[in-house]
Amino acid sequence: MPVIETEGLTKYYGKSRGIESLDLAVNGGEIFGFLGPNGAGKTTTIRTLLGLINPTSGRATVFGLDIVSDSVAIRGRTGYIPGDTNFYPKMTGAETLAYFAAFRPKTPPVMRDDLVRRFDLDLSKRCKDYSRGNRQKLAIVLALMHDPDLLVLDEPTLGLDPIMQKEFYDLLNDFRHRGKTVLLSSHILSDVDKTCERVGIIKAGRLVAVENVSELESKKVHHISAMFSDSFEVREFSLPGVTVIRHNEHSLELKAKGEIDPVIKALAAHKIVDLDFEHASLEEVFLEFYGEAGE
Amino acid sequence: MRFLNLYWRTIKDRLLSWPTIAASVILYILLVIGIYPSFAGNPAFKAILESYPKAILSLLAGGGGGLTLLSPEGFFSIEFLQLWGMIIVAGFIMATATAIVAKEVDGHTMDLLLTQPIDRVEYLTARVAADLTMVLGLVVTIMGSAWTGTKLFDFPLKTDGLIAAGVLLFSLYVLMEAFCLLMGVVMERGRAVIVSVAALIASHLLNALADFNKTIEGWRWLSIFHYYQPGEALITGQVPWPVVLLFSSLAVVLFTAAVVIFREKDIPA
Ligand SMILES: Nc1ncnc2c1ncn2[C@@H]1O[C@H](COP(=O)(O)OP(=O)(O)OP(=O)(O)O)[C@@H](O)[C@H]1O
Ligand SMILES: [Mg+2]
Question: Which of A76, A134, A230, B256 is a plausible cystine mate for B117, CB 3.0–4.6 Å?
Answer without folding.
Answer: A76
